[in-house]
Amino acid sequence: MNKTVDTHICEVTVYDDQALVTRRGIVQLTGEERELIVAQLPTTLVSESVQVSGVGMTGGRLLGVRTERIETSEGVHPKVAQLTEEIRQLEEQKRYGQDMLTLLNLQRNFVKDLNNHYLDGWTKSANPEPLNIPKMGDLLDFVGERWCKLSTAIAQQDKDQKQLNNQLQALRSQLDQLSRPQSQETFNIIITLEPSEAAELELEVSYIVTQASWQPFYNLRWQRTSQKVNVSYLARVQQNTGEDWLGVALTLSTAQPKLGTQLPQLAPWYIDGKPSRDLGGRVKTTAESDKVPSRSASITMPFAGTVVESESLLDEELERLKAEMSKLDVAKQTGIVTFAVSNRCNIPSDGASHKTIIFNNDYPCRAEYITLPRRMNFAYLQATIANPLTSVTLLPGQASIFRDNTFIGTTQIQNIAPGQDFKINLGIDEGIKIERNLLDRQVEQKTIGNQRRTLATYAYQLLITNLHNHKADVMVVEQLPVSCHPQVKVRLSDCHPQIPTGEMGMLEWSLTLLPLSSQELSYNFTVEHPPELMIVGLDI
Q1: Residues 321 and 236 in one domain
Q2: Sheet harboring 183-193: ordered strands across?
Q3: Domains contained in the chain, number
Q4: Residues 315 and 348 in one domain
Q5: What does the mean pLDDT of the chain come to?
Q6: Mean per-residue pLDDT for 295-300?
Q7: What residues make up the domain containing 136?
């Protein structure tokens, strides 16, 4: 004897490209059941993943579980009657519109013939009245007015008829599809029982389904009056598994259940050597070859007896392997992150993206103004946000940025572990004023050693003004030219306040400006080169 169990979805854990669904149901056992059937499950179910457990059965046990694919023919679709009624109503509207169109055309033809009737009567009369110009003008005005109104009404009726025809065509096509006999495939889970006493069994069934996924995204809100950023950790969940998730306890996870159960096999790593030639055909020495990165150094040799692939095929294989390894690297760096969504969720099986909130917290941050005087005379506001040690990992995803309730734009957040900081740009702030002036430029010829040299000296002054009523931390970034020629030398000769020169000629001052205050910065640099050499790219 078998019995069908009525179950409902109560928990769902969504992974990167699949989901674990848990169903529960209560069945009253009489002691004669040999099989329990959980029916009408979607074909996205992975048969090997089914697990079953039960509580409350005495004197018996669950012996096994299997799945069975069932193909059923659907009867008349419940929407057929609705579509038939909609088509009937539209056809009535179409008939009424056609009658109105016929009437309007008759009225317009009558107006058209009215003028001809008047003229024929006047010309055929034995004693025609004198031509009445005002009366003729009134007649023409009446004919013109009525003709315009009737023509407009006829055009509107034509338009309405076309729309009705399009609607009818769409509905008839839909009705034709639903009226055809269709077969539907589903899965049944069949649970084998050992005979037991009459009891109430609480059954739990879980299985993996495909065509489900989720992606994190964020809303970051910064208020000028606060030293915190409100972080809304959100998720877009979408599924087309074939069954709706209604009122479920939703869990989101970065685990990858199908990543594999066996370790990959390591093939022998062959290397070889061969003489390398430069463009002129000269054989390079080993020392010269070591200076030049070898394209083939990262490609392993094939097994003996195999055909060496072309370079393009090797490139494609390397790209494929890199893409696969990048997924493993992300998993290795982030670990497994799991979020239990607090509220009950409704995620229909429609393939659409459904938003759910993971949590909403305030994160500490530090705001700083960044300015590049050589490029612009205003500052950008940048916030450095700390992900607390007690918080969770922020997974890679898109973030929408709001500053004082104004949408600024979007950015991409990388993986941020607890205890790490990350930066977001909050747009332009005109409350920091920048002035950059070239104070002096001198060019002179000097003999250094036994060589004649040209020395060009440039002096700049920067004035940074805080127009806000609050103090401001400002990072001022300037740059010196970087020489690409061995005989062109660039030196920082003076700088106030004193700072070291960074990589690629960068100068960075960190200032704290009081409200409505200014600070002056200055620096000089010298470009030294042979007189016969013309300097290119020195944009002053």
Answers
A1: no
A2: 2-4, 35-41, 183-193, 62-73
A3: 5
A4: no
A5: 82
A6: 38
A7: 79-179
